[in-house]
Amino acid sequence: MDSWVRVLILVACLYPVFVECKVRRYQFNVVMKNTIRLCSTKSIVTVNGKFPGPTLYAREDDTVLIRVINRVKYNVSIHWHGVRQLQTGWSDGPAYITQCPIQPGHSYVYNFTLTGQRGTLLWHAHSMVKSPSMAPSSFYLS
Ligand SMILES: [Cu+2]
């Protein structure tokens, strides 16, 4: 066997060792924000003052830590639609189903690892208030 073939096989076997898994940290401040739609001002629940909320980026096998600080007067949680919660079901997000909602003035850290997933997923808030902030925001996995 040629030496270059041996080197190629060695590199292929070691490739997973060279792939770097990152810990990606985000902070979500859940706050009210006044918005003007059709000449009417309305206060809505936002994440970091944005609507839709911030886009998250991660790669397969990354661990994602999202600290959510609830600064509104409603209970909230963040639902990570489509994220496989392998052994982290408490980080899925639907309030009263997989977790207690985050109460006003409290925070919660969602902690999960992205395993076997790529593509575009979405997240949105669950809240006791009907609000456009329930609209989905993006979560890109590559
Ligand atoms: Cu949901």
Automatic annotation (TrEMBL):
Residues 30-130 form the Plastocyanin-like domain. The keyword Cell membrane does not apply. One of its GO terms (molecular function) is copper ion binding. Keywords: Signal. InterPro entries: Cu-oxidase-like_N (IPR011707), Cu-oxidase_fam (IPR045087), Cupredoxin (IPR008972), CuRO_1_LCC (IPR034288). Residues 1-21 form the signal peptide. Pfam families: Cu-oxidase_3. Belongs to the multicopper oxidase family. This is Plastocyanin-like domain-containing protein.
